Amino acid sequence: LKLFIEIVGHVAAMISSILLINIKGEILIWRAYKDNVGRPEWSAFCKRVVEAKESRDKPVQGINGCHFVHITQGDIVLVAATKDNVNVILVIKLLYKMVEIFKAYFGGSFDENQIRRNFVLIYELLDEIIDYGYPQILESDVLKKYITQGNNKAIDLNDQEQLKKIIVQATGVCSWRAEGIKHR
Description:
It is built from seven helices and seven strands, in the order H-E-E-H-E-E-E-H-H-H-E-E-H-H. By secondary structure, the chain is of the alpha+beta class.
């Protein structure tokens, strides 16, 4: 994850917006991080690729000067859009990581019904996962410590010690390694 973020930091620009679209081409979630890709471009993408089922096997589409990078998971198409030159592999990896995070929150399933039931939670997650088009926190275990479902909060946001632990986990060097492991 740290290497992923370091590489992304060297990219000149990142994504402008994220969309979750059903297989009929209806926009379920639209989160804009920059204002350079608008509704006309998204509508053209939905009509040309999603509704028409044309070029779904091509994960990158160029339409009207915009680049759309997309993956399909079940009945949902996740799309990242940009007008800048980005590393497509990193964007695809980000989209798959987002699916993994959503599945962690939705009990292993990710479909249109889950999106419709949890759209507020998804927007909250998108705000933490991506900041101004750049990936930030991509570990569901870290996100679950302060973005919870329902009214039961996992931590007290006034407790400085718990906040320090979250910050260390969010910015730690090895997200895959448990803390406290010592070797001789």
